[in-house]
Amino acid sequence: MTFAQPQGSNIERMTLLQLIGHELDLTETQRETAQSRYEAVGNWIAGGAAPELELAVISPQGSIALGTATKPIGSNEFDVDLICHLAHVTRTTQPWAVKHLVGERLRQNAGYAEMLKEKQRCWRLNYAGEFHLDITPSIPNPECSNGGELVPDKKLREWKPTNPKGYRARFEQYAAIEPSFEVQFAEARKRATVEPLPQGGGKNTLQLIVQICKRHRDIHFLTRDRDLAPVSIILTTLAAWSYAHCARAKPYSSELALLIDVVMAMPLFIEHQAHDGRTYYLIPNETTSGENFADKWNTDPRLVVAFFDWHSALLKALADVQELRGIDQLGKSLSESFGENIVTPAVARLTGMVTSARRGGLLSVAPGLGLTVGRDRGVAVRSNTFFGG
Q1: Does residue 377 contact residue 191 with C-beta atoms inside 8 Å?
Q2: How many domains does the chain have?
Q3: Domain boundary at 135, 162, 189, which?
Q4: Domain that holds residue 238
Q5: Residue 144 pLDDT exceeds 50
Q6: Residue 216: which of 354, 355, 363, 319 has the closest Cα?
Q7: Please, are residues 134 and 81 in contact by the beta-carbon 8 Å criterion?
Q8: Which residues of 259-286 are buried (b: 16+ CB within 10 A; e: fewer)?
Q9: Looking at the domain assignment, is residue 373 inside a domain?
Q10: 259, 277, 271: which is closest to 203 by C-alpha?
Q11: What are 27-59's pLDDT values in tens digits?
Q12: What burial letters (b/e) apply to 293-302, b meaning 16+ CB within 10 Å?
């Protein structure tokens, strides 16, 4: 089985990556259940007798907030990272005391007490077989002009700056940047007034790129030291900066070409400088001051090596996406990079969509675009069940 037209098949390949992203997503039911659960937790905490808990607000942060969550490997339980913001607490209160206050309130609920587990900086509520809620306390950061917050460090001795709401807003700004495409691709896509194969879930290109990076990392480090895997915030930040740059830089021949360029350029946004014979790395949180996502790189050089090793492997995987012509070959290669349990249903769905459209006489090839679904958008493809005829 081969893709139709080597020069016009990027739309199918990109669609396959989009379908892989769909397989990595939380279901709508999971999302709604998680939201219902953490809102209930927030109401419980805010109802505590301690005045510090008054007006406590729980909100999502990280991948759940950004729409970049990915299915965990070998488990059905998602991580749901939450911030419990205590607006009445100041930094004169010790971090350990604030964390203790939240934990004690959770223990006052018999149901939560059974699920509660203490972590270094947060409290975990484990809903077995579904997800776990990691609740990190935060307080206002009066020194941050962007509405930032302070969270405990791992030793619970100091407050560290962060800004989950500001980070989310900036990420969404980057994601909203519209890339430009070469005239041939843009005109062909414009003629195909309906997207050829659905992306699903309203996901944007930047969200998909982050998911692709995170899933490949998870598979890549199954056979390596997982403690050296690049943390998600680094992958997300570099992908966002790279996307913002690439989307504005030039017209692209296809969405797949844009995706590959974004991944390729990610390391260019790592700041580094030499000092006393050593290299120091900086990936700053641009929405607040004092937070360096790459701070651990400066104490463990293995993390730097591991990042670039992973990055090279992902580029190789994406090169295969661009070069391999058979859907079977491509599916096998992608399974090695992203996991068979994710890729197999994505390939099956793409094959089914193309086969169904072809049998209905709705499949055509538009110059520069590839396979499209709909009438009057290209040269009709004769009816059979294979991509390449």
Answers
A1: yes
A2: 2
A3: 162
A4: 6-25+171-178+198-338
A5: yes
A6: 319
A7: yes
A8: bbbbbebbeeebeeeeeeeeeebebebe
A9: no
A10: 259
A11: 889 889 999 999 999 999 999 999 999 989 999
A12: bbeebbeeee
Tell whether 84 is covered by a domain.
Answer: yes
Place of tokens 């070069």: 323
275-284, long-range: CB < 8 A, 24+ apart: 283/234, 283/237, 283/238
Task: Please check whether residues 130 and 202 belong to one and the same domain.
Answer: no
Q: Are residues 204 and 330 in the same domain?
A: yes
What's the angle, vertex CA 65, arms to CA 10 and CA 98, rounded to 5? 150
Torsion of CA 337, 341, 347, 349, to 10 degrees: -150
**DSSP-assigned beta bridge partners for residue 78:** 131
User: 197: pLDDT confidence band, cut at 50, 70 and 90?
Assistant: very low
Task: Reply yes or no on whether the pLDDT at 264 is more than 90.
Answer: yes
Given a cut of 60, whether residue 375 has pLDDT beyond it is: no
- CA dihedral (323, 325, 331, 333) in degrees, to 10, reads -40
Residue type, 232: S
Asked if 14 and 32 sit in the same domain, the reply is no
Contact between residue 217 and residue 225 where contact means Cβ atoms under 8 Å apart: no
Cα separation of 367 and 376, whole Å? 13
pLDDT of res. 328? 82
Say yes or no to pLDDT of 358 above 70: no
Average the pLDDT over each of 49-58, 114-123, 136-145, 176-185 and give the range with the smallest value.
176-185
Could you tell me the two tokens for 345?
A: 């249903």
Which range among 59-63, 134-138, 185-189, 289-293 shows the weakest confidence by mean pLDDT? Answer: 185-189
Positive or negative: CA dihedral 83, 172, 210, 285? negative
Residues 58/42, Cβ–Cβ less than 8 Å? yes
